[in-house]
Every structure is written in C-alpha cells, then in structure tokens.
C-alpha cells in the first residue's frame, strides 16, 4: 500500500529542484526521502540525521517538495522500478512510494538545450528561471534549493556557457541556493562570478565526494601526518550507467579526474606520479569499482605499497548527501548566510571558498556550521557572512 508523507499545514515546505531529475541519483533521492520520512527505512548515510545536527532547525524530510529539469522523458515511477530490479532500490519500495514519485515527476520540466535548439543562452536561462519560480509559487514553498545531479559534461571551450552554467544562472536568478554535485562547470564559470556575488545567496561546491576521492581525503593526510613519502598514486574506475557513458568522453573524464587529483595534491602537499583512469562498463549499471595503488617510502627509503578497492552504488552513496546539502543550504539561507559555504567542503572534491582538504578537518568545519546554526533560531533573520 502506498504510504503518505503529507505535511502538516503549519510546517513550511521547501522545494528541491534537481537538474537531471529523472536520472538514477535523483530517483533515489526522491524515493529515499519518501521512505525515510514515512519510517520505512533508517536515514543511513545522512550526516544531518546524526546527533551533530540535533536542534539546528533543519527542515524535516517530510517538508521537502521535489521538481526539476531533465532532457529525458522516462517517468520517475518507471525509473524507480528499473533501479529496484537492479538492486539499487529495495524491492517493493517503488510501489510503496509511488504517489511521491508521481508527484515529483509532474513537477519536472523540459531541460536543454536539445539538439537543434536555436534559443539564445539568455532565453534558456529565462525559461529555466521561470520554471523554478512557477514551482515555488504554485506549491506555496517558503524557499527552494537547486542541486545539479545530471551526467558529467565536458569542460567548456571558449566563452559560451555550458548547460550546467545555464542552470546555475537560473537558480540564482530565481533566488535559490545552489549546489553542483557533478564535475560539470556549473557556477564555476568566470562569467557567473558577478551574478554569484550580487545574488546574496549561499552556495556549495562542485563534484560530490562519494567513493574513491572520499577514501583519498582520508589516506592522503595519513601519509602526510606520518611523514611517509608518497612516490606514486594510480587509480582505475570501472562504472556503468549514465555516468559511465558520459565519462567515456575523454573531455568529461578529464573534468572528473581533475577533482580526484586535486585532493591528492592538497592533502599531500605535492603531486605524486600516476594517473586515474575511468572505464565505461555498461554491464555494471549503477555500480562502480575503484582501485588505488599507492607506492610510498618509509624509514631509510624502504619501498612499500598500499592497495585499496572500493565497490559501491553511486546512487545510494550520493542520495543521502544530496538530502544533507538540501537541508543545510535551506537552513543557511534562512539564517542569512551568503556566498560560498566552505563548511560544506566535507561533501565535495572541489569545495566552494577556502577550506581544508582533509576529511577530518572538513568534518570539524561542518560541526562548526552546525553549532552556528543551532545558535540562530529558525525564522529569525541571520547575520550576513
């Protein structure tokens, strides 16, 4: 029987506008939010559901309303069924949250630009902005957050804004805090810097840290703190699904790998030899395997190695972090925060603003944000950053 996650009238409702709203990650976010809100599953993987964030005024999961942009037309309920068949979602969950999936699907609008679209970038931004503003108005939302979870695009060439940057500009023009969970350019395009500065909105980083780079952000500081010399660090990723297909493009893979390598440079203080390779293996679907081979030297130049294997499900790893970011950006916006939020670097390969690269230090910064949010009562105007 479908569950109900209706929200009491007194509880403010918050919009979550997903770019790539019919993809595996977005579908897992919507289905997972409904399941946790209804008490069908625990909020495993959600840092905001831990005692660290008790009494910080974060919005309840039951208050979140989903919509978004996408260029594909596969309905969310059908996509969820496919994910359940592949073991990504629990068996029976798509049926249990069918009404929530259908409601979110009705709020998805056509993205772009599609092949043959002759609209000027300003027209596309205006159209996307209108879609978001209409969503907020029709659903009676107090505010909305925009999160990019679309497939990775190649890095920009020339001055033209890539699609991810068009969506980022629309988010700010619609008055929405923004996070880019992909390696795509998004808000990082130089042409958007004036808009980001003038918007007065909080925004987070780029490229979610869910697997191989999460491990690197722990191991890199370990080597540095133990004064061990890393000579080479090589990695391989095997993945399928939409991301695997997108990253088969060398330009898109280069954008992805830049974040992985940046974490090593920042945490080790030097750039070791070695490269990271990404291979598209369609048979893996939404699952990925990442191998790392680390060559290092100890006392008296003794050569040693460390090898790691990470096997995981991209959507299941990403979805709880996206719900975290939605709640944190909403609360930060309510509290009066503006500009980049380096405290959210815990979630990203490429954090916004200046902050540490070590996961432990990033967690400490996140804890500091929790304390500041706890000190500001919800609904009371906050101080600017």
* N-to-C SSE string, H for helix and E for strand: EHEHHHEHEHEHEHEHHEEEHEEH
Report helical residue fraction.
Answer: 25-40%
| Average pLDDT for all residues | 91
- Secondary structure category: alpha/beta
**Strands, total number:** 12
Under the CATH scheme, which class of the largest domain? Alpha Beta
The CATH superfamily of the largest domain turns out to be NAD(P)-binding Rossmann-like Domain
- Note the beta-strand portion: 15-25%
Number of helices: 12
Radius of gyration computed on alpha carbons? 20 Å
Supply the number of structural domains. 2
Organism: Streptomyces graminofaciens
Protein name: Myo-inositol-1-phosphate synthase GAPDH-like domain-containing protein
InterPro entries: Myo-inos-1-P_Synthase, Myo-inos-1-P_Synthase_GAPDH, NAD(P)-bd_dom_sf
Pfam families: Inos-1-P_synth, NAD_binding_5
Structure overview:
There is one protein chain. The chain is α/β, with parallel strands linked by helices and 385 residues long. The chain folds into two domains: 14-208 and 316-375, 3-Layer(aba) Sandwich (Rossmann fold); 212-312, Dihydrodipicolinate Reductase, domain 2, CATH 3.30.360.10. 39% of the residues lie in helices and 19% in strands. The protein contains twelve helices and twelve strands. A hairpin with a 5-residue loop joins strand 9 (287-297) and strand 10. The longest helix is centred in the C-terminal third of the chain and has 21 residues, at 314-334. The radius of gyration is 20 Å and the shape is globular. This is Myo-inositol-1-phosphate synthase GAPDH-like domain-containing protein. InterPro entries: Myo-inos-1-P_Synthase, Myo-inos-1-P_Synthase_GAPDH, NAD(P)-bd_dom_sf. Residues 211-315 form the Myo-inositol-1-phosphate synthase GAPDH-like domain.
């Amino acid at each position: 029987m479908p569950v109900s996650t209706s929200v009491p009238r007194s509880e403010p409702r918050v919009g979550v506008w997903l770019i790539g709203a019919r993809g595996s990650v977005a579908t897992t976010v919507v289905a997972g939010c409904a399941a946790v809100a209804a008490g069908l599953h625990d909020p495993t993987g959600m840092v905001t559901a831990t005692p660290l964030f008790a009494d910080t005024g974060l919005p309840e999961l039951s208050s979140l309303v989903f919509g978004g942009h996408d260029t594909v037309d596969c309905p969310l309920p059908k996509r969820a069924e496919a994910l359940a068949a592949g073991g990504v979602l629990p068996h029976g969950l798509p049926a249990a949250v069918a009404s929530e999936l259908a409601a979110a699907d009705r709020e998805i609008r056509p993205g772009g630009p599609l092949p043959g679209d002759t609209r000027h970038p300003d027209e596309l931004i205006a159209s996307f902005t209108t879609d978001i503003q209409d969503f907020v108005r029709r659903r009676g939302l107090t505010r909305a957050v925009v999160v990019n979870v679309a497939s990775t695009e190649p890095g920009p060439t020339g001055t033209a804004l890539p699609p991810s940057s068009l969506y980022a500009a629309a988010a700010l023009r619609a008055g929405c805090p923004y996070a880019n969970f992909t390696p795509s350019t998004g808000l990082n395009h130089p042409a958007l810097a004036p808009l980001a500065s003038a918007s007065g909105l909080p925004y987070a980083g780029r490229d979610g840290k869910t697997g191989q780079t999460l491990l690197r952000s722990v191991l890199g500081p370990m080597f540095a703190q133990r004064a061990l010399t890393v000579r080479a660090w090589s990695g391989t990723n095997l993945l399928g699904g939409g991301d695997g297909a997108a990253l088969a493009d060398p330009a898109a893979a280069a954008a992805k790998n830049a974040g992985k390598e940046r974490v090593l440079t920042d945490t080790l203080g030097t750039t070791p030899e070695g490269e990271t390779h990404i291979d598209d293996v369609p048979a893996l679907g939404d699952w990925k395997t990442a191998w790392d081979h680390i060559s290092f030297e100890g006392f008296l130049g003794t050569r040693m190695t460390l090898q790691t294997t990470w096997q995981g499900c991209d959507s299941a790893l990403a979805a709880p972090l996206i719900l975290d970011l939605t709640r944190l950006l909403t609360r930060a916006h309510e509290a009066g925060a503006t500009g980049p939020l380096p405290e959210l670097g815990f979630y990203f390969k490429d954090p916004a603003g200046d902050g540490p690269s070590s996961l432990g230090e990033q967690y400490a910064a996140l804890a500091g944000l929790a304390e500041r949010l706890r000190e500001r009562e919800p609904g009371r105007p906050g101080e600017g950053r």
